[in-house]
């Protein structure tokens, strides 16, 4: 395979897998690590991929910095966090996703004896003084844009746990793409958690409905409920009901709608 053709195939491979390590690419294309690094640098220079620790990934789309998102709709996010925490029972093993909404679960979980698995550094900082919480970090490379720990290849650390409930953040919820997010580096983690968890809850304020982001990490029929201040889209609300997804509107109801 000539160099130009190989580089084009590498680009297609990364687009398909969202993120790839140099080791995997070297094995896939049967060339040395040095050759892969040179080919990858060519794609980086063309802004077709971006560098990540140990590999390359598709450029992120629609993801602003954590600090820029943190103050948006704060009152709604706090109410959503409280409602989500109310669903957690003593003894639960839960996963808390990265995000500026999921972090609001922290102050409402302080007195519950539970195990929290998380890749959310902000949550860890907020909950570190809560003696009743057993917090397990997923570890891995730290991504400052999401304040999260990520992993390119190894998700065995997550799938080894029996997760009762997963509380997931989303960049967008749409009729066309279901539940989406904008960070390719978190894609494998999010998908693995949804598959492993007995129940998956999506925490999303009204601004997320009708939006579509880079990747779909869950379909409507894979989630238990959406916790929100307002669905803000009748079409999506109908689709959620048809998929038997419960809707918890924090500004209207105290209990989960059946």
UniProtKB/TrEMBL annotation:
SMART domains: DeoRC, HTH_DEOR. One of its GO terms (molecular function) is DNA-binding transcription factor activity. InterPro entries: Carb_Metab_HTH_regulators (IPR050313), DeoR-like_C (IPR014036), DeoR_HTH (IPR001034), NagB/RpiA_transferase-like (IPR037171), WH-like_DNA-bd_sf (IPR036388), WH_DNA-bd_sf (IPR036390). SUPFAM superfamilies: NagB/RpiA/CoA transferase-like (SSF100950), Winged helix' DNA-binding domain (SSF46785). Pfam families: DeoRC, HTH_DeoR. The keyword Transcription applies. The keyword Transcription regulation applies. Residues 3-58 form the HTH deoR-type domain. Keywords: Transcription, Transcription regulation. PROSITE patterns: HTH_DEOR_2 (PS51000). PANTHER family: HTH-TYPE TRANSCRIPTIONAL REGULATOR IOLR, HTH-TYPE TRANSCRIPTIONAL REGULATOR SRLR-RELATED. This is DeoR family transcriptional regulator. The lineage of its organism: Bacteria, Bacillati, Bacillota, Bacilli, Bacillales.
């Amino acid at each position: 395979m000539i160099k130009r053709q190989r580089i084009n195939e590498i680009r297609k491979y990364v687009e398909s897998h969202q993120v790839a390590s140099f080791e995997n690419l070297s094995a896939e294309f049967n060339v040395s690590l040095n050759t892969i690094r040179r080919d990858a640098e060519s794609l980086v220079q063309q802004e077709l991929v971006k560098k990540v620790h140990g590999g390359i990934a598709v450029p992120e789309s629609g993801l602003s910095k954590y600090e820029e998102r943190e103050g948006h709709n704060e009152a709604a996010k706090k109410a959503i966090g409280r409602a989500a925490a109310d669903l957690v029972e003593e003894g639960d093993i839960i996963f808390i996703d990265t995000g500026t909404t999921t972090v609001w679960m922290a102050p409402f979980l302080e007195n519950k004896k539970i195990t929290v698995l998380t890749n959310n550094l902000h949550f860890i900082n907020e909950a570190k003084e809560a003696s009743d919480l057993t917090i397990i970090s997923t570890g891995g490379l730290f991504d400052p844009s999401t304040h999260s720990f990520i992993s390119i290849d190894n998700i065995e650390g997550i799938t080894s746990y029996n997760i009762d409930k997963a509380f997931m953040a989303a960049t967008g919820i749409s009729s066309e793409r279901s539940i989406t997010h904008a960070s390719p580096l978190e894609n494998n983690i999010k998908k693995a958690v949804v598959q492993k968890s007995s129940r998956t809850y999506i925490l999303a304020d009204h601004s997320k409905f009708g939006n579509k982001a880079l990747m779909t990490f869950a379909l409507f029929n894979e989630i238990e409920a959406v916790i929100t201040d307002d669905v803000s889209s009748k079409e999506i609300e109908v689709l959620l009901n048809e998929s038997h997804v419960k809707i918890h509107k924090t500004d209207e109801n105290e209990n989960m709608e059946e």
